[in-house]
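Morning F.,

Quick status update on the modeling queue. The single chain you submitted on Monday has been processed. Sequence for confirmation:
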Amino acid sequence: MSTYLLLKTLHILSSVVLVGVGFGSAFYLFCVNRSKSVEAQAIVARFVVLADWIFTTPAVILQPVTGIALLHMAGWSISTPWVAWSFILYFITGACWLPVVWLQIRMRRMAEHAAKTGGPLPILYWRYARWWEGLGYPAFACMMVVYFLMVNKPSL
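Structure tokens below.
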């Protein structure tokens, strides 16, 4: 197997992990928040934060590293429109993801505290949950466009 194909495999697999774990985590936290079960929210929030550190963070790092290496090996310029747009959208996704990580950590702490004390979740939890959800939509939309650009490589 050539180095190019190995890097391409890593690039594709890390993109699947990035988006797949993101969708899965978002789905579970979105659903558990509607259950209003504080104990379930504490457990799911803990695993969502853990999944981000174990799976999403390495994928976030691998994507640009393997992508730039593949561009170089294939002779594509970073100024090629579909490549440039892919990077712009990836950075927009990251600009959404970083606050989402911060929000998830705080939501986890609030849910764990409420579960331990038997109290309700504070109003701040629900404000954070709205921001968390609101930031997720543009992030996922951007990643879907990146997938389209990567697969189709349109001349823009």
